[in-house]
Each structure stands twice: as structure tokens, then as C-alpha cells.
């Protein structure tokens, strides 16, 4: 079964565009794919009312003495 896609236009400010470009550079992909990655990574949490800052999560894990291994695992998942 093939998925259908829809074309949408989105206006971004310079900070948002910089985030998209950073994702594209890190993942070696197009801006289109970077936007899709960002949506998949954050949309469900927004709908569920969650806001996760990975840096704060890592600091929390470290402060709980779970160590760098746990923090590295979070980084790998992010």
C-alpha cells in the first residue's frame, strides 16, 4: 500500500529555519525531510501536552546519579 502525501507551504522565521537547516545538516537530508523529522519527533508530545527539553532531561539524569551511560542513551535516542 502506498502512502499519499500533501504539499503544504510553511513560513518560518530565521530561528526556525536555522533549526531546520541544522537538522538537515546533521541527518544529511533535505529541508523537506528535516521538517518531517521535526514533526515526527515533536508533534505527538505537543498533542499530548508534553514538552521535553533533551538537555534538561540529561541534566536530570546526571543529577539523579544515573551517570553518563543513561545520559548517553537519551542522546542516542534523541
Low-confidence stretches: none
What radius of gyration results from the CA coordinates? 16 Å
The general outline is elongated
Helix-strand topology string: HHHH
Helix content: 55-70%
Mean pLDDT rating: 80
Distance between the termini: 29 Å
* Broad structural category: mainly alpha
Total helical elements: 4
What portion of residues belong to β-strands? Answer: under 5%
Main sheet: strands, sense, barrel = none
Number of strands: 0
Q: Could you explain how this protein is built, in words?
A:
The two termini are 29 Å apart. This protein has four helices and no strands. It has helices at 14-27, 31-48, 54-63, 67-77. Helices cover 68% and strands 0% of the residues. The longest helix has 18 residues, at 31-48. It is elongated. Helix 1 packs across helix 2 (31-48) and helix 3 packs antiparallel against helix 4. The relative contact order is 0.08. It is mostly helical and 78 residues long. The model has no long low-confidence stretch (mean pLDDT 80).
Amino acid at each position: 500500500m502506498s502512502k499519499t502525501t500533501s504539499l503544504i507551504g510553511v513560513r518560518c522565521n530565521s530561528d526556525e529555519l536555522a533549526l531546520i537547516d541544522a537538522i538537515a545538516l546533521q541527518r544529511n537530508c533535505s529541508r523537506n525531510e528535516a521538517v518531517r523529522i521535526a514533526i515526527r519527533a515533536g508533534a505527538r508530545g505537543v498533542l499530548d501536552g508534553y514538552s521535553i527539553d533533551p538537555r534538561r532531561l540529561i541534566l536530570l539524569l546526571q543529577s539523579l546519579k544515573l551517570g553518563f551511560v543513561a545520559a548517553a542513551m537519551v542522546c542516542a535516542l534523541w
